[in-house]
Amino acid sequence: MPEKELLSLRDIYKSFGLNAVLKGISLELKEGEVLALIGGNGAGKSTLMKIIMGIYQHDSGEIYVRGEKVTSNKTSTALASGIYMVPQEPLLFPNMTVEENITIGFDRKKSELRRELLDLMKESGWKLELSRKASSLSIAEQQMVEILRGLLRQAKILILDEPTSALTFDEVESLFRSVNELRAKGIGIIYITHRLAEVFEIATDVAIMRDGIIPMRGRVEEFTREMLVKGLLPPDTQEKEQSLKEHLKKVEYENVEPIFELQNYSGYGFTGISLKVYPGEILGLAGVVGAGRTELATTVFGKDKVLGGKAILNGKDITGLSTKKVMEAGLNYVPEDRHYHGLFKISDVAANTSSAMLGEAPMGKFFLNAKEEHRMTQQYIDDFRIKVTGHSQTVGSLSGGNQQKVVIGRSLSTSPKLVILDEPTRGIDAAARGDVYSIIHELRNEGVSILLISSDMEEIVELSDRVMTVCQGRINGEFSGDDINQDNLMAASFGITGNAEVEA
Ligand code: ADP
Ligand code: MG
Question: What architecture (CATH level 2) is domain 240-330+416-493?
Answer without folding.
Answer: 3-Layer(aba) Sandwich (3.40)
